[in-house]
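How a chain folds remains the central question behind the approach discussed here. The record that follows shows the chain in one-letter code together with its fold in token form:
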Amino acid sequence: MYRFLLSRRWLITLLIALLLIPTTIKLGFWQYHRHEARVARNDLIAQSLTAQPVAFDSLSTAPGFTVPKGLTWRAVTATGQYDPEHEFVVRKRTDSGGDKIGYFVVTPLRLADGKGTVLVNRGWVPSGDSAAAYPPVPAAPAGEVTLTGRLRADETSAGSGIRDRAGLPDRQFNLISTPQQAKETGAALLGGYLELTATAPAPADQPELLPEPNHSDIGPHMAYAIQWWLFTAMIPVGVLVLVRREAKDRAKAAAEAELPPVAVPA
């Protein structure tokens, strides 16, 4: 009854089904692992943001220091004086709502303990009248200030997907990079940078502060994993339905072939 399964068409169908089953299982686990990574990232960010702030230079101890993932978003503080002479802006960045394109304003802060200089992302400002002109930027506070913020790793083209190109207008860059700025200014910049959340004493005017990262959205990966595994379960069920239908159709055709011919009246 099921000898048709040995036909070329059915052997190919069965082979495809057998190959699809481990493939869809693997795709389901791939999405599940992405879900786990997203949850772990969210937990790490939440812990970092709520931890008691520590001194920036207790984590980023030297020029060229690479901020590890485990310290990214860590709450930090820094005390010193801004160096507005070496301030720069970072192009093509969006505001907190993600709707408007403008600039991040980055100003170096010379630490009061003399251990080096920290790049501080003071926030976002809108674009000016011309992309070639330096945008209007609220002046950095004068005198000694104490900053609170989030520790961030230096941006790279590989990590951000942003192409870093030369020939930009004066004091405009595509990335926040301490190696790049150390080369430009000759300053001893500690690796990583501070993303500002508060200043004491508070300035009268400042760029728009950046919101904390979203650490509540777990994304669709778990749903995708379940979908792949449901599809895995459907493969043998679908094959069984097709086999039974083919067997039924063949049995019906065989029964009809065995029926005696109907006599036609003269």
Summary: The CA atoms of residues 148 and 198 lie 5 Å apart. Helices lie at 8-50, 56-59, 157-160, 178-185, 221-258. The first strand starts at residue 54 and ends at 55. The beta strands are 54-55, 75-82, 88-94, 101-111, 117-126, 144-152, 172-173, 189-200.
